[in-house]
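Researcher: Can you fold this with glutathione in place?
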Amino acid sequence: MNNRIELYGANTGNSLRAAIALEEAGIAYTACSIDLYAQEHRGSTYLALNPAGKVPTLVDHGTTPALIINQSNAIIQYADSIAPGKLAPAHPGPARTRVIDRYFFFVTDVIAPSHAAFFLHQAGQDKAAAIIDLRVIDQLTYSESFLTAGFMAGEQFSMADISAFTIATAFRDRLDWKQLAQLSRWFESIEARPAVQRGLNAFKQF
Ligand SMILES: N[C@@H](CCC(=O)N[C@@H](CS)C(=O)NCC(=O)O)C(=O)O
């Protein structure tokens, strides 16, 4: 093991969100790729870390016993707690609260419904899925109004940009970018960040 922290994941939005958060927070970690196609996430070794058989999972060997986190958004919160100020203003107050507010907008009003639509597609319920996908696109379009100061929650990059970026990436072919000048500028600037690029490439091999 090279680092105290290991991040198990695959090339999926949830895993990439966690990897980008660790990269942006400047937290050293070892990326451990899980081959979903080979069902590695359903094998006993991985199930011992994440009984739900989902990615990502973070293991911090710096605690006794090792700390295991199974939710991508809890991993982001953990990264914020051990690298204060990198993913949100460190001190409680209006600026930090705005970051949390926008972060939860993307997590609960955009990412969660898009997961529901994914499962409806898988179940052959394409009409129902399309209705939810349209709602996701509406919400992403609405987020253009957040970009008055450059980032999703003000003048500084934050966890709100991470949650927004991974879901905007998933819908990038379906957004009307020509009508979304601010969102377009924001997306390009987030995508160009070196830490975001490293996060996007964390699990490239599968
Ligand atoms: N709420 C969890 C969701 C995790 C999740 O659904 N991961 C998907 C990939 S995006 C997965 O592992 N799918 C494999 C499977 O269900 O077989 C999180 O945010 O971490």
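Model: Folded with glutathione in place. The chain has a mean pLDDT of 97.
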